[in-house]
Design goal:
about 45% helix
Length: about 150
């Protein structure tokens, strides 16, 4: 008797779960836009030094990409609780769609012409020499916005 009651309870739970399934584009929309999110753990007392560095590298290169229309936007988010978990800084770049993430020779050449080979080498050298002592990349994600209807 107990076993039958337990099986009936499981059946009800799983039947209820199946009935609650949502259907894409009927119950919710998925954005074409894609956000590239990097989670960063900036080491203690390195916050301002790291921000100064990414101003010269990450921010400057994203400004060029935005000017060229290769990205829609970018942002930096910092936790008010810097020692609260696996990361304390988010670097976010918004792309119009997945195609903008794919390798593209023409887009690369356009960017490099605007950014400059010397600038690219300088920022790469700076990042390789300085960032390992300042931070650890703890994750990288591609996210899409979900709009529930």
């Amino acid at each position: 008797m107990y076993m039958k009651s337990l099986l009936a309870a499981f059946a009800i739970v799983f039947a209820s779960s199946a009935a609650a399934d949502l259907t894409p584009w009927e119950d919710y929309e998925v954005s074409d836009a894609v956000w590239s999110v990097s989670t960063i753990k900036v080491h203690p007392n390195m916050d301002d030094a790291y921000l100064e560095g990414i101003k010269k590298t990450w921010v400057a290169s994203n400004e060029v990409a935005k000017k060229l229309g290769q990205i829609e936007d970018y942002a930096i988010y910092r936790s008010d609780l810097p020692q609260s978990g696996d990361f304390n800084l988010l670097l976010v770049v918004k792309f119009a769609n997945t195609a903008d993430l794919a390798p593209n020779k023409a887009r690369y050449e356009t960017f490099m012409k605007e950014w400059g080979e010397a600038q690219a080498q300088e920022t790469s050298d700076y990042a390789q020499q300085n960032y390992p002592a300042m931070r650890e990349i703890t994750g990288q994600y591609y996210l899409r916005k979900i709009e529930i209807k």
